[in-house]
Automatic annotation (TrEMBL):
UniProt-listed Pfam families: TetR_N (PF00440)
Protein name: TetR/AcrR family transcriptional regulator
Superkingdom: Bacteria
Lineage: Bacteria, Bacillati, Actinomycetota, Actinomycetes, Streptosporangiales
Assigned keywords, A-Z: DNA-binding, Transcription, Transcription regulation
Keyword Repeat tagged: no
Presence of the UniProt keyword Ion transport in the record: no
InterPro entries reported in the protein's UniProt record: Homeodomain-like_sf (IPR009057), HTH-type_TetR-like_transc_reg (IPR050109), HTH_TetR (IPR001647)
UniProt DNA-binding residue ranges: 34-53
SUPFAM superfamilies: Homeodomain-like
Domain HTH tetR-type: 11-71
Gene3D superfamilies documented for this protein: Homeodomain-like, Tetracycline Repressor, domain 2
Organism: Nonomuraea typhae
């Protein structure tokens, strides 16, 4: 259905608040900015900020729901005949080649990482996000494969894949933070990703193959 005027204004207000907050966080660090300062920058009241965002951490992670669902989306949208590992290999390499944000392989990801690392509350929130993502992906794999609820395989598959993508992304971001360019980093990460997904494929490569 076409978005109504009221819904569009609410969405635009929410986005403006989140954008202003991130700009301030980038300049002064997460712990150096108050919600009142975000409200002033966005020209809204503090109460309005909290109408859209439950906590200050939610201002930083305004795309939580989307990020939590991204790995599950890869599984749901895998191609006919494509296993779960192959789907993630394809999606990860595409994000790497295009510099897309979904695995943290984009310009500016190193700054985002520094902000998270510099705030204990953001570190804790990131662990919550990763845990929620793990659970959602395991449920999606279970649903997509028709696995029994007592079957550990969906959880094991989800855990192995997410560990691989996170290790690859964090390794790349550390190199970017050290001053290397993405042009230097990408070829190495592509090689490492191919090797990592080959290792997964040897054990679980055919798991969850979609029907033709």
């Amino acid at each position: 259905m076409e978005e109504g005027l009221r819904e569009r204004k609410k969405r635009e207000t929410r986005q403006r608040i989140a954008d202003m907050a991130m700009g301030l966080f980038m300049m002064r660090g997460f712990d150096g900015v108050t919600v009142a300062e975000v409200a002033r920058a966005a020209d809204v009241s503090v109460n309005t900020v909290f109408n859209y965002f439950r906590t200050k951490e939610d201002l930083f992670m305004d795309r939580w729901d989307e990020v939590e669902d991204l790995p599950s989306k890869v599984v749901r949208e895998r191609r006919p005949g494509e296993g779960v590992v192959a789907a993630f290999r394809r999606d990860f390499l595409d994000a790497l080649d295009t510099g897309d944000w979904r695995y943290g392989l984009n310009e500016g990801a190193e700054d985002f990482g520094r902000l998270v690392a510099g705030s204990p509350s953001l570190m804790a929130r990131m662990r919550e996000l990763e845990h929620a993502t793990d659970l959602r992906l395991a449920r999606t794999v279970e649903e997509e494969t028709g696995a029994d609820p007592d079957d550990l395989a969906p959880r094991l598959v989800a855990a192995q894949i997410l560990v691989v993508t996170r290790v690859l992304a964090r390794t790349a971001i550390l190199r970017k933070q050290a001053g290397e360019s993405w042009a230097e980093i990408r070829p190495d990460v592509r090689r490492q990703a191919e090797e990592a997904f080959d290792l997964l494929a040897d054990g679980i490569g055919d798991y969850g193959r979609a029907l033709s």
